[in-house]
Specification:
single chain, about 600 residues, alpha/beta, 8-stranded antiparallel sheet, 19 helices, globular, binds 2-deoxy-2-amino glucitol-6-phosphate
Amino acid sequence: MCGIVGYAGREAAAPILLDGLERLEYRGYDSAGIAVVSGSRALQVKKSKGRLSELSRLVDGGKSIDGVLGIGHTRWATHGEPNDVNAHPHLSQDGKIAVVHNGIIENYVELRDFLCSKGYVFQSETDTEVVTQLLAYYYAEDNDAFSALYKVLHRVEGAYALGIICADCPEKFLAARKDAPLLVGFGEGANFIASDVTAIIKHTRDVVYMEDGEVAVITADSVDFFDAMEEPIEKEHKTIDWDVSAAEKGGYAHFMLKEIMEQPEAVRKTAFSRIRDNRVCFDDLKIDEAYVKSVSKIYIVACGSSYHVGVVGKYNLERMLRKPVEVCLASEFRYSNPLVDESCLVIVISQSGETLDTMAALREAKALGAHILSIVNVVGSSIARESHDVLYTWAGPEIAVATTKAYSTQLVLLNMLGMYFGDILGTLPGEEYESIMAELLLLPEKMERLLSNIEDIKRFASDYFNHNSVFFIGRNLDYAMGLEGSLKLKEISYIHSEAYASGELKHGTISLIENGTLVVALGTYAPLFDKAMSNVVEVKARGADVLALATEKNLAEMKKTVENVMVVPETHTVLQPSLGVVPLQLFSYYVALLRGCDIDKPRNLAKSVTVE
Ligand code: AGP
């Protein structure tokens, strides 16, 4: 959730830390802070509630702080409200140690009581301050920050990525990781830590991903890694191959709009690199045909939009494989004593690859003996590393909190997995396979066509942006797509919205429909178009304002009932949500724009959810 950056080099640290934090701000943005140690062994800590711009103003863009080594943090509050005091870095009582932390220390109350009994006085309400004071407590024993850190790590329970500086050692800082992302970047005469590579990509592409239990000691010229037993270890370096511009807005007003527009290319890259001679080829999968045939049941486990991809996947995979597919919210799966065993395939979906709920569900399923196949966007992320098999979505970095291109690439990959398995199992007839493939090859082009004409969507957004309650209704794949459309709208525009299976409305929820309630009627699922239309008529009869979504083929039919219709090209039924979701993303974007919302950084949210 929070973003961490650290720097040891020869240039002024503060501007570099601020720049890194700007790129990490999507991970949390309720407060920010930096701590820099100067050659005279003074720790300067500056922090501020609110956006990073507040902090930047406070320290004059970093110019008012000298020193060539420091750490920074951008926060998504867990313990204690977002304010200056609770912002990181936290400074120990003796003023010698400053700490930034991402994660949650679960036994912080017990540790705080222990420290209080030793005379420590706490300034903040955070769990992180406990780590800081505990470090100071052990540091006071023998003035060795490294051994103090290990003593602390043996006592804390929970998740952490930590960056630690100590006034007495101005040439180095420490980092530690457990269940929260952290990487080390190797530069020329400078080394870094960061929660994610976007923070440091302009300085280096040479990185090492830290694993749970590991500690790093970082100076301008060296990085030493240690395992949980304090033994030195060698780590494998990775080279980041994407372009810096991928993490810039590139002329768009918001990352979200840029990422919506990037979808055709992202889908092309994700799908076409795995198609040869009109066949799906997963060279990146370890599982073989015998394994696929042996699978008794498939689970799809994920959170948020990635879960919504799973809902589409349930419909499509059951259709293509004729095997039971259960889609589960990761946060529920973990505690549900799931009926998973060695015969189950668990497909884990995550853009960030760091979502804690999803990670915990993965570990649970793995412990029960299931094979874990993950669909992940961030290369080298924790979920990718802990899975037996990984299929990467080649969406590039996604910065806007509201996912768009990651959703689309996950969707296309899951459908391709269905084709691949269906072919092996013989449950997807050749003709059907070929017809999906033909449309898959046309998908990016059709997306481009859709994105080149968005004037109607903008107009509908200006017609409806003042509504306070919205229902997305549809059947089958339209219902699954509505879940995503509804989430997009609520997360960036703060309008209350719900997705409902059209046929279910009459069992209760239709009582909420009154004059002026906005209903977004999704009518792209051809097999149930007529049934969906009868539900549209029902809500209209109760006074709803209806905005519809239809394919070019059934536009005329939809127009007989609904005046305002967003249109998408026709494609194969199983792929239709890949096109249908695009106008829903754009509608949410323009509604949020008209409501003056902070689109890329919606309130209370963060891009990577690394707390339970
Ligand atoms: C979607 O717009 C949200 N940002 C959120 O629901 C997200 O999909 C969810 O937190 C899961 O994240 P992941 O894909 O990185 O695991």
